[in-house]
Design goal:
With 419 residues, the chain is of the alpha/beta class. It has 2 domains: 3-207, Rossmann fold, CATH 3.40.50; 217-375, Rossmann fold (3-Layer(aba) Sandwich), CATH 3.40.50.300. 35% of the residues lie in helices and 16% in strands. The strands form 2 sheets. A 7-stranded parallel beta sheet has the order 3-4-2-5-6-1-7, sandwiched between helices. The protein is globular and about 65 Å long.
């Protein structure tokens, strides 16, 4: 379906053409008509499907049609990274429309507070904010949201997981009751539906394929002992020099440092990102990764929905995510917008049951790629075994992210996927 079928403002169509958009994605086809008609909406769509444009395009078009002034749209998001990402996308889409936008989030050095206060006092067309930071401004009494016509909650499930329910309700108490409210979520658990029942008015509901990675993702797994993780990771990276953009997810900040330090022995362009970094440092790290100055980025789970980078060639789950849904969000960083990519997961014996739940969720049994012979045998697949007993025989000595790098640069792994 072409974007021309939506009858958007001509200036928006010019921006769409300039940005290289062609056909609307499934979530855009389903959501945009409802938003243009002014309906409240609850939409379920996985990451990387174009859902940001699904609400930004019609909201800007309506604002232009009705010549809305002041703060006409408030977008609430769970993380600073997503706030920045959406703000940048609005700037691109609204380039020819003079749309004003600001991202409001915490974690900086305090210099942004004055700028945020000024914009919230004088009015900016679109405000993208994390709940905690915005609520801090609201408590001081100078924020004027009387002109808000559109409320959008993006990644509602993640906001509730973080514990933002009460903050969201307090923010909404400052908004006009007569407004259009949109809720976008990657999953639709009961708590999201309960929140929707409180803030949406007779909403229409749209759903795309839920909890499945994009079709362009080639997925595979390695069964490993902990001390085999770094060797196979180094092998994957070293054997694929044509992978220009590599994203590695791990569960802890400690592992981020260990992985980065180990990879730097053979790779020059490696950086890590976690909540230990100040916000400006995190933004600079992401900027270098987006511009391909940094080839390899190692990140904690907090980044799984906050990285908007096209053409990531390889995503590696160094640890199996604790939540089956998070696997989809991690893997969703590759094969975005009809591109292709590779996603590999390293599974130790303790994580087999968790990964079995992931396979049930995505309704796919992924291939188990053999380890190179010189790395020794990994554990045998046994998701029903008690924790730590998914293998036969003794585990190789060592463990943890500091495990040895023995054999990491020898030969080629049989069955290893190529780009």
């Amino acid at each position: 379906m072409s974007f021309e079928t939506f009858n958007l403002d001509p200036k928006l169509m010019e921006a769409i053409s300039y940005m290289g958009f062609e056909d609307a994605s499934p979530i855009q086809k389903l959501a945009i008509p409802h938003v243009l008609e002014g309906h409240d909406l609850i939409a379920c769509a996985q990451t990387g499907t174009g859902k940001t444009a699904a609400f930004i395009l019609p909201v800007i078009s309506r604002a232009m049609e009705f010549k809305q002034e002041g703060v006409h749209t408030l977008i609430l998001v769970p993380t600073r990274e997503l706030a920045v990402q959406i703000d940048q996308e609005i700037q691109g889409i609204g380039y020819f429309t003079n749309t004003e936008t600001i991202a409001i989030y915490g974690g900086g050095d305090g210099t942004e507070w004055g700028k945020e206060k000024k914009v919230l006092t004088t009015g900016s067309g679109i405000v993208v904010a994390t709940p905690g930071r915005l609520l801090a401004h609201l408590k001081l009494g100078y924020v004027d949201f009387s002109s808000v016509k559109h409320l959008i909650l993006d990644e509602a499930d993640r906001m509730l997981d973080i514990g933002f329910h009460d903050d969201i309700m307090k923010i909404i108490s400052h908004l006009p009751q007569k407004r259009q409210s949109l809720m976008f979520s990657a999953t639709m658990p009961d708590k999201v539906r309960k929140l929707a029942s409180k803030i949406l008015n007779k909403p229409h509901e749209v759903n795309t394929a839920i909890s499945k990675p994009a079709e362009g993702v080639l997925q595979g797994t390695y069964l490993v002992h902990d001390n085999q993780k770094l060797p196979i990771l180094a092998r994957l990276i070293g054997d694929n020099p044509d992978y220009e953009s590599i994203l590695i997810f791990t569960s802890t900040k400690k592992n981020v440092s260990a992985i980065v330090n180990n990879l730097k022995k053979t790779e020059k362009s490696v950086e890590g990102i976690s909540s230990d970094l100040e916000q400006k440092e995190r933004e600079l790290v992401l900027l270098r990764f987006r511009s391909r100055q940094t080839r390899i980025l190692v990140a904690t789970d907090v980044m799984s929905r906050g990285i908007d980078v096209k053409e990531i060639h390889l995503v590696v789950n160094y640890d199996v995510p604790g939540d089956a849904e998070d696997y989809v969000h991690r893997v969703g960083r590759t094969a975005r917008a009809k591109t292709t990519g590779v996603a590999l997961t390293l599974i130790n014996s303790e994580d087999m049951a968790k990964f079995h739940r992931i396979e049930k969720l995505i309704e796919t049994e992924l291939i188990r790629i053999p380890l190179p012979p010189e790395m020794g045998a990994g554990p045998e697949w046994n998701p029903k075994a008690p924790s730590g007993r998914g293998f036969k025989g003794r585990s190789p000595k060592g463990g943890g992210p500091q495990g040895g790098n023995r054999g990491a640069n020898k030969g080629r792994s049989k069955g290893k996927p190529r780009k």
